[in-house]
Specification:
Blueprint (H helix, E strand, L loop, with lengths): L13 H34 L4 H23 L6 H28 L7 H26 L15 H23 L2 H4 L1
Helix pairs in contact: 1-2, 2-3, 3-4, 3-5, 4-5
Family: Belongs to the DRAM/TMEM150 family.
InterPro entries: CWH43_N, DRAM/TMEM150_Autophagy_Mod
Protein name: DNA damage-regulated autophagy modulator protein 1
Length: 186
């Protein structure tokens, strides 16, 4: 956990593979979010548990996160750090808002379309991701240099280390959150 997410793809040939896989992940995210949007719209026809505008807003926020992922994949951390960082902020920030909105929508659809257990799991993942997002930004903003190979004791190492742990926590939060859609999509 001593390296940031983007550190895995800063040097060729890994950078090409990293960029490609992030773009594939963003595309799969778009597809998943759109299917989720359509599912909510269909369920909402008979139950009216959420305003359609809220569902559309959630989809738009999620799509912004996927665009942020594309920016992260395209502009490497060491080549164009400011653009890369903006992309990461959009990806993680929008992602956290998206999963929080989806958690709220899930609660509104209970008990007809979701179980409370699934809603609690989604909300727990959202809360953990939100909590991890804040120190990720705070500690990352304290890092005064952009580099790859960090060693304990270096200036800003602690900031980098804590930020990286939080970044991976949020990233895995997104993965686990999307896995909770499996039952809904069946």
């Amino acid at each position: 956990f001593t390296s940031c997410f983007s550190d895995t793809g800063t040097k060729p040939p890994e950078s090409g593979i990293f960029g490609f896989m992030i773009n594939i992940s963003a595309l799969l995210g778009v597809i998943t979010m759109y299917i989720r949007y359509l599912l909510i719209e269909k369920q909402n026809e008979s139950s009216h548990f959420v305003r359609s505008s809220c569902n559309i807003f959630s989809l738009c926020i999620g799509l912004m996160g996927c665009i942020g992922m594309g920016i992260v994949a395209t502009f490497q951390e060491l080549s164009v750090p400011s653009v890369h960082d903006i992309g990461a902020l959009v990806a993680f920030g929008s992602g956290v808002v998206y999963i929080t909105l989806q958690s709220i929508i899930s609660y509104k659809s209970c008990p007809q379309w979701n179980t409370y257990f699934v809603c609690h799991i989604r909300m727990a993942i959202s809360v953990i991701s939100c909590i991890a997002f804040i120190p990720m930004i705070v500690f990352a903003s304290q890092i005064s240099m952009t580099k790859i190979d960090w060693t304990p004791g270096e200036k800003d190492y602690t900031y980098h280390f804590v930020s990286a742990i939080c970044e991976w926590t949020v990233a895995f939060g997104f993965i686990f959150f999307f896995l909770t859609f499996i039952r809904d999509f069946q």
